[in-house]
């Protein structure tokens, strides 16, 4: 099973150059307190890089990345939101219509875990009903100064139906894995109509358009 991230673009190529026909596109949003590492996780996933002095995001940033799961290419349209409180009111613009969300906290920061729980509640109340939510306990490389226990977060995630992983944007631990776990959980079934909320949108070969429909066709 091919599960490696690939460079962005709507046309998926097999190693032999043949083009895969089934491409699903999903909107994914990252939410969480400032400085927990949202942008760093995206930078690691999309570009394989890590910056010690990553700048705080202003407003939001948009990036894309594709992953292959069996015969399906999943294209993520990623909205990396700004965690500073003054940007909170913008968040609904980014999670509205999203099929997936990664809510991030820093394992060294209890407040960021509480903030993550608040984001989860907001998503459960106001985002698409079928949204796939993953909880990421980031900065796992700094586990010597951890204050949020793995078991506590895991139990919370289980109780709330969330995917859960501890991640490190710095070492790349579980970064691809969390996106892949989301991609696997997203519905990619054939024949879903445009009204089926939460479905990804299936692109035809070579299709580059950015229509607003959000379904796998
Ligand atoms: N050690 C370690 N540092 C990390 C990790 N992820 C991010 N950082 C650092 O934490 C700081 C904040 O990271 P950002 O990615 O900017 O955090 P953010 O959540 O995007 O912050 P806002 O854009 O303000 O919401 C940066 O200095 C990163 O280098 C990690 O996994 N391990
Ligand atoms: Mg950021």
Specify the biggest β-sheet.
8 strands, mixed
The Rg value, from CA coordinates, equals: 17 Å
Poorly predicted sequence stretches spanning 5 or more consecutive residues: 1-19, 190-198, 205-217
Mean model confidence by pLDDT: 85
- What general form does the structure show? globular
Q: What ligands can be seen in this structure?
A: guanosine-5'-triphosphate, magnesium ion
Please indicate the percent range of residues in DSSP E strands (runs of 2 or more).
15-25%
What is the rounded distance between the termini?
Answer: 23 Å
Indicate the percent of residues in helices.
10-25%
CATH architecture assignment name? 3-Layer(aba) Sandwich
CATH superfamily membership? P-loop containing nucleotide triphosphate hydrolases
Regarding CATH, which class?
A: Alpha Beta
Structural class: alpha/beta
Please report the total strand number as a whole number. 8
Kindly give the count of domains. 1
Q: What would the CATH topology be? A: Rossmann fold
How many helix segments?
5
Q: Which sequence of SSEs, written as H and E, runs from N to C?
A: EEHEEHEHEHEHE
């Amino acid at each position: 099973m091919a599960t490696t991230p690939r460079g962005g673009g709507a046309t998926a190529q097999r190693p032999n150059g043949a083009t895969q026909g089934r491409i699903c596109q999903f909107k994914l949003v990252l939410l969480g307190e400032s400085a927990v590492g949202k942008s760093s996780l995206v930078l690691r996933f999309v570009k394989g890089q890590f910056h010690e002095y990553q700048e705080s995001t202003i407003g939001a940033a948009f990036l894309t990345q594709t992953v292959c799961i069996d015969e399906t290419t999943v294209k993520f349209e990623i909205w990396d939101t700004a965690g500073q409180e003054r940007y909170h009111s913008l968040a609904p613009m980014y999670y509205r219509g999203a099929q997936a969300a990664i809510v991030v906290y820093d394992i060294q920061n209890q407040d960021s875990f509480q903030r993550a729980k608040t984001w989860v509640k907001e998503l459960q109340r106001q985002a698409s009903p079928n949204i796939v939510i993953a909880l990421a306990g980031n900065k796992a490389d700094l586990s010597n100064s951890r204050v949020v226990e793995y078991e506590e977060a895991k139990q919370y995630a289980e109780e709330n139906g969330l995917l859960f992983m501890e991640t490190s944007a710095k070492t790349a631990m579980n970064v691809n894995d969390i996106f892949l776990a989301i991609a696997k959980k997203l519905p990619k079934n054939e024949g879903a109509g445009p009204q089926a909320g939460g479905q990804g949108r299936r692109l035809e070969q070579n299709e580059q358009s950015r229509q607003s429909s959000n379904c796998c066709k």
